[in-house]
Amino acid sequence: xxxxxxxxxxxxxxxxxxxxxxxxxxxxxxxxxxxxxxxxxxxxxxxxxxxxxxxxxxxxxxxxxxxxxxxxxxxxxxxxxxxxxxxxxxxxxxxxxxxxxxxxxxxxxxxxxxxxxxxxxxxxxxxxxxxxxxxxxxxxxxxxxxxxxxxxxxxxxxxxxxx
Length: 163
Description:
Layout: H1 5-29, H2 32-48, H3 57-76, H4 96-109, H5 112-123, H6 128-135, H7 139-161
């Protein structure tokens, strides 16, 4: 049986943005399994919405994912942060996996607002203007949250490097 236009469109959205969206949700909710559940809800809602004609699908899907993740957090009514592992030592190129884990754990120590900005800037590669539009915040707020987050990450990772 041939796939409908909607099915093809949803497949394309999932193929193009699925990994990005899952990582973004994971950044917000702090747990991979919970992020998968939230992502499933995002795509169910996308299926029910007539959004095939949007000009900026990426921004719409990111916003939908953010809203669903924040709804999930409100329902859960607590934050979930993992402690930074004491073994986070950053020295050689051969330790890329450990380094990545340390950075991910350091990101979880940031306030949720800063964590979102870092994710959207670095992983989603959005401009500060697009981040501001997506999060419905002023441009200066987006850039200052990013700067504060980078300072805090530098401090966290610097401390772990000296332990």
